[in-house]
Amino acid sequence: xxxxxRMLPAxxxxxxxxxxxxxxxxxxxxxxxxxxxxPLTGLFGLTRQSMRQTDATALAQGVMEDIRGQWQNWxxxxxxxxxxxxxxxxxxxxxxxxxxxxxxSGTATTLTRSSATACPGKTGPRLTYAPxxxxxxxxxxxxxxxxxxTSSLIAEVAQP
Length: 160
Known about the structure:
Blueprint (H helix, E strand, L loop, with lengths): L3 H4 L11 H52 L3 H6 L2 E2 L7 E8 L5 E7 L2 E2 L22 E10 L2 E10 L2
Parallel strand pairs: 1-4
Antiparallel strand pairs: 2-3, 2-5, 5-6
């Protein structure tokens, strides 16, 4: 049998952690959390910027497709006219006439939407030659801005 003093722990030595050890562990955990979370907050900001850029691009694409679709009608193309309500806010459209060789002709003009009655709308095959003032090719630039993000699309639209 062992003496009684060997069965009891030595004085001053107890099981568990001291308050200093716990505070040091919490400090280390706090530093690790900061190191991990600091880059994540930057990623959230990039995600918001990316979403605004995507929204601006989608807005510009929608306007561009509307113009291209309406200009399948040769009267609207000749008049450089697009029917419908006003352009969405933050969207500007400029039109530049071009030659067949791709050189610009004249100055770029800003396109606005007209009311359906002000915009001609003949359809069907063109029975006569295009008016002399109607270019064979037009460069359309659509610029859309959503908050601080801007997207510009350029398309060349041929005479129908």
